[in-house]
Amino acid sequence: MNETPSIRRVAINTGGGDAPGLNAVIRAVVLASIHRGWEVFGIENGYGGLLADEPGGLTPLGREDVRGITHRGGTILGTTNRGNPFAWPASDGGAEPRDRSDEIVARFRELELDALLAIGGDGSLHIARRLSEKGLPIVGIPKTIDNDLCATSLTFGFLTAVETATDAIGKLHSTAESHRRVLVVEVMGRDAGWIALFSGLAGSADVILIPEIPYDIASVCAKIEEREAAGRGFSIVCAAEGAMPTGGDVVMKTVPRGSGEQIRLGGIGAQVARQIADRTGKETRSLVLGHLQRGGAPISYDRVMSLRFGAAAVRCVARGDFGTMVALDPPEVHAVPLEEALRGVKKVPVDGDTVLAARALGVSFGD
């Protein structure tokens, strides 16, 4: 396909939760764009940088601005999970959210930008799709440590999060064995249990709880008691935050936010730990890895994946292939329509090879 000669100025932003590899994507977009003679601008704080009354702004990005950032965690542009232009929160927290998407579109055109490369997960890419429908030339770049976007084989940041969780589970083995305790590790995974499955299997957890397989606490305890009878006086349970009991629902918790409180997903680890202690009499502790999984330097695979995604997105812009998202279909990265990318959540196949391998090794899923 011929390239679009009219591209001169492109913008890039990061939205939603941070993930290892964001800076590598930014670097790839900047260098690949400069190679084509384009100017690049970073929109700070999601879409907030396009609104005059919000912090941040639009900052030019050159070679020096992205030098040495491939290995850095976080994002040099800042991000937010409260920056939906279609439901923008009031600054005082009191008024109802309002639709500011037309302001975003108008500001984008006023700045004479020719394309937007939007990095984000499910929520951010839904915003990108709606802005695309309003006429913005957008290419999406998938980002979520949950690895739950259905159109791409992998999302960058996922394997780094798995590495972090695996390391934590590995370190818990020695203290669990020393004290003959049960330790329950809660990892991220609202709708899909990829992190729990991979890190639990790699870290030799005895029980893995994921949203795709509702669990029976009696079965979880039976596995622990089986190990006890075999002389293994400790057990490790790895639970995705979205795991739920058969016939039950996800666990929610209250967390502080500003001057108030917010109900959010989380707490499954503590609940399972209490139930195990009550049923087995074993001393049981829980640990929530939380945002630790989002932080730190990306592993080498995620760095390469991020750089590939960024360069591929620039190729999409050059072709005028807008309203798309770059996706990994091994071994290639290609573009898929945003509608296809957002058609559903990519869940762990309950009869897939990885789950079958875990069962063959004696891992319990609580079912």
Description:
This protein folds into two domains: 9-156 and 298-330, Rossmann fold (3-Layer(aba) Sandwich); 160-295 and 349-360, Rossmann fold. Helix 4 packs across helix 5 (194-202). It has ten helices and 13 strands. The longest helix has 22 residues, at 158-179. The strands form three sheets. It has a seven-stranded mixed sheet, with helices on both faces. It has a four-stranded parallel sheet with strand order 7-8-6-11, sandwiched between helices. The protein starts with 8 loop residues before the first strand and ends in a 7-residue tail after the last helix. The model has no long low-confidence stretch (mean pLDDT 92). The protein is an alpha/beta fold.
Q: Helix tally?
A: 10
Strand content: 15-25%
Biggest sheet features: 7 strands, mixed
Number of domains: 2
Question: Can you give keywords for this protein?
Answer:
Rossmann fold; four-stranded parallel β-sheet; elongated; 2 domains; alpha/beta; 367 residues; seven-stranded mixed β-sheet
Task: Please describe the topology of this protein.
Blueprint: E1 9-14, H1 22-35, E2 39-43, E3 58-60, H2 101-110, E4 115-120, H3 122-133, E5 138-142, H4 158-179, E6 182-187, H5 194-202, E7 207-209, H6 217-229, E8 235-240, E9 252-257, E10 260-265, H7 268-280, E11 284-288, H8 300-319, E12 324-329, E13 332-337, H9 338-341, H10 353-360
Parallel strand pairs: 1-2, 1-4, 4-5, 5-12, 6-8, 6-11, 7-8
Antiparallel strand pairs: 2-3, 9-10, 12-13
